[in-house]
């Protein structure tokens, strides 16, 4: 089995295990392969191994890589997971199927203007970190009210680095319940098992899928 396929199967198995421990249905958890900085060849190895959901964090990079790949693999689902500039909203709306990084009203306005109607996650700054994108927890109720024109599927977060992520995952899960959405986009290479146990419906895994 090629290495990429082996890594994919190992991560799928680990997610299924985590789901079982938490008494969840593994089918509730979507694995998004984060393919930023990876070549089309690396991506196609994973597609051949059965992976369908991919995530990119920059519109420009995605625009150079994905139109070709999409023609060859029309059933791929492409997720925008990085900070999105309003002036790229139109390009993003044309290229992506899901957006995980709605974090300010001006971006919502730009997306509505671009005709975007796909599943959208609101990014929450769960660690209240100054340098990080995301809506502050205290602002979340007003923000969700203000972006009602979009199809808000759920919440997304990137917990602070270098600290135990589980409390932040639990916090995001609580916010999802409180605000009556269902999608929970959380967990990366180092912590996708913990995220899956704490309710993630989407995990975004790059390094662990593409590197040994
Ligand atoms: C890069 C990235 C990931 C994946 O990170 P890994 O640690 O490589 O798995 C997940 N989410 C976002 C928003 C990213 O930018």
TrEMBL record:
Record-listed N6-(pyridoxal phosphate)lysine modification sites: 36
One Pfam family it belongs to: Ala_racemase_N
Domain Alanine racemase N-terminal: 9-210
Record has Lyase as a keyword: no
Keyword RNA-binding tagged: no
Alphabetized UniProt keyword annotations: Pyridoxal phosphate
InterPro entries, per the entry: Ala_racemase_N, PLP-binding_barrel, PyrdxlP_homeostasis
Function noted in UniProt: Pyridoxal 5'-phosphate (PLP)-binding protein, which is involved in PLP homeostasis.
HAMAP family membership: PLP_homeostasis (MF_02087)
Entry's family note: Belongs to the pyridoxal phosphate-binding protein YggS/PROSC family.
Protein name: Pyridoxal phosphate homeostasis protein
């Amino acid at each position: 089995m090629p290495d990429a396929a082996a890594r994919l199967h190992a991560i799928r198995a680990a997610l299924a295990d985590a789901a079982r421990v938490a008494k969840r249905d593994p089918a509730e958890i979507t694995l998004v392969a984060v393919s930023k900085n990876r070549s089309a060849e690396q991506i196609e190895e994973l597609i051949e191994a059965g992976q369908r959901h991919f995530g990119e964090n920059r519109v420009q990079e995605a625009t150079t890589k994905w139109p070709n790949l999409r023609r060859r693999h029309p059933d791929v689902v492409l997720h925008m997971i990085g900070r999105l500039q309003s002036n790229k909203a139109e390009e993003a709306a044309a290229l992506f199927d899901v957006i995980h990084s709605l974090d300010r009203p001006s971006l919502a306005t730009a997306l509505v203007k671009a005709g975007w109607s796909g599943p959208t996650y609101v990014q929450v700054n769960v660690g209240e970190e100054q340098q990080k994108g995301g809506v502050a927890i205290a602002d979340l109720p007003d923000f969700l009210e203000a972006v009602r024109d979009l199809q808000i599927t759920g919440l997304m977060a990137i917990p602070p680095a270098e600290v135990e992520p589980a409390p932040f995952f639990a916090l995001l899960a609580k916010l999802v319940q409180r605000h009556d959405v269902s999608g929970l986009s959380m967990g990366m290479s180092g912590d996708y098992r913990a995220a899956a146990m704490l309710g993630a419906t989407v995990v975004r895994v790059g390094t662990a899928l593409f590197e040994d």
